[in-house]
């Protein structure tokens, strides 16, 4: 898969045609997300088995175009991350829906921090990857999938079981080259991740705003960094704190509020946010509004234009984020400006 969308182009559109109010669906920025989010929904609802070979850089829309499918084959060359909080956006393409189905609070942790995963053990433990294969065997794997004697079934789960038999053969040959498959680092860190990030998934029920919940995460990490007896735990806490301190405050607040709402919908509440289409409608509102803010153009400038890695966020601190600002970002889109789920069918 690829490394995501062309964020420089989106920045260019936002600068050339700036907007304070929600843009129409034919605005260049809106068209990008109309197209991408329609594809995400198509992948999630694909009526036949959807198989992705996720090798190389696997980020951004590369994740959206694969992770909602049935099979995700990872290799020793796979590098996964959702680093959008570092450019003033948020982890979109429905990753919040995927994150809600990962172990414990792991999804929120990956979404907030943008942590990179590259070991097969972590990719499989996280459930981001469903199968593993050696990169050099990918041509053979593709041929084996194409040539597999599959039977047509009304329920694609029967076909997926047939495909799994092929995929397991390649994973079995992968094991000798990945001795850490049985000892993922994330499994060791899971208790720490859950204790620090887990409470934030219910922050609204606890009477905490998103910025306050982020402060709680930082305080828990600081306590571990200063008092935990295990060096690995202290290192995890210090590195995570250092990462969070560099990210866009508004992006982190949006990410936490969004991921928590999806998590609650998937695990308890149900409703529109429990389904991919409802998630993408919400994310469309978030995406076009975040791209209209100065943080996005500034974050992309610092990351990939000037590459000085020194963005100036506004607001610069979590304490300066007002709840009404977040409410406005999360408000439903006006009629006629929302995500059009038949957008791809209507394009010229």
Could you characterize the architecture of this molecule?
The protein is mainly α. The protein has one domain (7-346): Alpha-Beta Complex (2-enoyl-CoA Hydratase, Chain A, domain 1), CATH 3.90.226.10. 54% of the residues lie in helices and 5% in strands. Strands 1-3-5 form a three-stranded parallel beta sheet. Helix 5 (106-113) runs antiparallel to helix 12 and helix 10 crosses helix 12 (249-269).
Give a quick summary of the entry:
By secondary structure, the chain is mostly helical. It has helices at residues 7-16, 28-44, 61-64, 95-99, 106-113, 120-125, 138-147, 156-174, 185-197, 210-227, 231-246, 249-269, 276-291, 294-305, 323-330, 343-346, and strands at 51-54, 57-59, 71-74, 79-81, 131-132. The strands form 2 sheets. A 3-stranded parallel β-sheet has the order 1-3-5.
Draw up the topology in text.
Layout: H1 7-16, H2 28-44, E1 51-54, E2 57-59, H3 61-64, E3 71-74, E4 79-81, H4 95-99, H5 106-113, H6 120-125, E5 131-132, H7 138-147, H8 156-174, H9 185-197, H10 210-227, H11 231-246, H12 249-269, H13 276-291, H14 294-305, H15 323-330, H16 343-346
Helix pairs in contact: 1-14, 2-13, 5-12, 10-11, 10-12
Pfam family, one: ECH_2
Family: Belongs to the enoyl-CoA hydratase/isomerase family.
Catalytic activity: 3-hydroxy-2-methylpropanoyl-CoA + H2O = 3-hydroxy-2-methylpropanoate + CoA + H(+)
């Amino acid at each position: 898969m690829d490394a995501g969308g062309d964020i420089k182009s989106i920045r260019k559109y936002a600068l050339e045609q700036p907007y304070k109010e929600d843009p129409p669906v034919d605005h260049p920025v809106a068209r990008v997300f109309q197209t991408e989010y329609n594809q995400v929904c198509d992948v999630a609802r694909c009526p036949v088995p959807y198989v992705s070979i996720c090798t190389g850089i696997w980020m951004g829309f590369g994740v959206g175009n694969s992770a909602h499918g049935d099979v995700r084959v990872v290799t020793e060359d796979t590098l996964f991350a959702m680093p959008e909080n570092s450019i003033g956006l948020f982890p979109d393409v429905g990753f919040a829906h995927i994150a809600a189905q990962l172990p414990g609070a792991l999804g929120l942790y990956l979404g907030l921090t943008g942590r990179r995963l590259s070991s097969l053990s972590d990719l499989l433990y996280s459930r981001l990857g469903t199968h593993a294969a050696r990169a050099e065997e990918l041509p053979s794997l593709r041929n084996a999938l194409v040539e597999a004697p599959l039977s047509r079934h009304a329920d694609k789960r029967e076909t997926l079981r047939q495909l799994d038999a092929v995929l397991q053969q390649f994973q079995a040959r992968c094991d000798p080259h990945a001795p850490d498959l049985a000892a993922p680092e994330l499994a060791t860190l899971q208790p720490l991740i859950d204790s620090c990030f887990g409470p934030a998934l219910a922050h609204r029920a606890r009477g905490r705003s998103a910025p306050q919940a982020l402060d709680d995460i930082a305080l828990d990490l600081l306590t571990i960094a200063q008092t935990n007896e295990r060096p690995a735990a202290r290192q995890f806490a210090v590195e995570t704190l250092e990462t969070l301190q560099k990210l866009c405050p508004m992006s982190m607040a949006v990410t936490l509020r969004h991921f928590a709402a999806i998590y609650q919908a998937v695990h308890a509440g149900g409703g529109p946010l429990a389904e991919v289409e409802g998630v993408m409608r919400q994310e469309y509102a978030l995406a076009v509004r975040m791209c209209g803010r100065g943080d996005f153009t500034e974050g992309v400038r610092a990351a990939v234009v000037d590459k000085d890695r020194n963005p100036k966020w506004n607001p610069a601190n979590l304490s300066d984020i007002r709840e009404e600002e977040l409410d406005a970002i999360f408000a439903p889109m006006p009629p006629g400006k929302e995500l059009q789920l038949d957008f791809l069918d209507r394009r010229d």
